[in-house]
Amino acid sequence: MPMPNLYRIILPVPDIEKAARFYAAVLGEPGRRVSPGRHYFTCDGTILACFDQQADGDGTAHGWKFHPSQYLYFAVPDLEAALQRVQAAGGVIDEGIATLPWGERMFYARDPFGSLISFVDEKTKFTG
After folding, report:
1. 2 pLDDT above the threshold of 90
2. Is the distance from CB of 111 to CB of 19 less than 8 angstroms?
3. Order of strands across the sheet with 8-12?
4. How far apart are CA 112 and CA 91, in angstroms?
5. Residues 60-69 as b or e (16 or more Cβ within 10 Å = b)
6. According to the model, what pLDDT value does residue 120 have?
7. For the stretch 71-110, what's the b/e string if a residue is b when 16 or more beta carbons lie within 10 angstroms of its beta carbon?
8. Is residue 1 a contact partner of residue 40, using CB atoms and an 8 Å limit?
9. Which residues of 114-126 are buried (b: 16+ CB within 10 A; e: fewer)?
10. What is the pLDDT of residue 128?
11. How many Cβ atoms from other residues are within 10 Å of residue 43's Cβ?
């Protein structure tokens, strides 16, 4: 049986405009608005879908929120530049660049809404 392809991740955000600006600056691509409350960024075959349920007209009934212990990991060719982009765009660096015991060189941060994000040097990413 062929392996499934993870093609989209929903990231609940309270302000779609602010999220679109932050992730466009950090990811280095403008992304694309697909509905009033959804802005998609293509990340090497997987879509990061920023979703503002209020802006999309869904109200608050579904209670979309990002789990407080869930990270999004991005592999990047220049870790230092990624750290600078996160800071310049208004993100918070929780832990600076370090090499972890399994060999990944990375840093941990939070977007302007507190969602946990991490950036890994693509040359050191561990995939199992």
Report:
1. no
2. yes
3. 8-12, 46-51, 38-43, 32-35
4. 5
5. eeeebebeee
6. 97
7. eeebbbeebeebbebbeebebeeeeeeeeeeeebbbbbbe
8. no
9. ebbbbbbbeeeee
10. 82
11. 16
Summarised one tens digit per residue, pLDDT across range 107-126 is: 999 999 999 999 999 999 99
**DSSP string over 32-88:** EEEETTEEEEEETTEEEEEE-TTTTT-TTTT-----TT-EEEEEES-HHHHHHHHHH
| Beta partners for residue 43, in sequence order | 46
CB 52 within 8 A of CB 99: no
For the record, the structure tokens of 29 come out as 């691509």
Q: How far is Cα 57 from Cα 69, in angstroms, rounded to an integer? A: 27
pLDDT at 127: 86
Q: Could you tell me if 33 and 20 are in contact, meaning their C-beta atoms sit under 8 angstroms apart?
A: yes
pLDDT digits (tens, 9 = 90+) for 33-90: 999 999 999 999 999 999 999 999 887 666 677 677 789 999 999 999 999 999 999 9
